Amino acid sequence: MRIVSAVVAALLLFSGVASATPSRGVTGTILAQWSAGGRDYTLREIVIDPGGSTGWHNHDGTLYAFVKKGVLTRTLGDCTTTFVHHRGDALVEEPNHVHIGRNLGTSPMVLEVLYVNPPGAPLSRDEPNPGCSFE
Does 14 reside within a domain? Predict the structure, then answer.
């Protein structure tokens, strides 16, 4: 199995241009990939270490996730809407919504994620911090 990061860590250092926020303490393992009905499907396990985060990002398709272990704190790009997902919780992320996932706990957090993307789309796209006081 191939290990990939939850988001591509890319910093743009151009004057006047906001930088993407890199992930910290995140690893991902692709469990399965297939295409059907004009969509690409990727099943992936993501681990976020204590204090780690996905960095600000969005998805081109819909993401379905299940919290296998720990607690995921997810904040949307408005900086005020925060969801806390505990072990056993399921969640759906709609396309093109900027957000960040963080592990504010003291043990690793594990997600099982199914990405349903347009053909050839990346699993996520890095975004700059929308102006939140963290990250």
Answer: no
Residue 15 token pair: 């004057």
Residue range of the domain that includes 97 = 3-8+21-126
Q: How many domains does one find in the chain?
A: 1
Residue 109: its pLDDT value, please? 98
CA dihedral (125, 75, 101, 43) positive or negative: negative
> CA of 1: how far to CAs of 32, 44, 46, 83, 91, in Å?
9, 11, 13, 31, 25
Q: CB–CB of 132/54 below 8 Å?
A: no
CB-CB neighbours of 126 under 10 Å: 21
pTM value is 0.83
Which tens digits make up the pLDDT trace of 11-44?
222 233 456 788 999 999 999 999 999 999 999 9
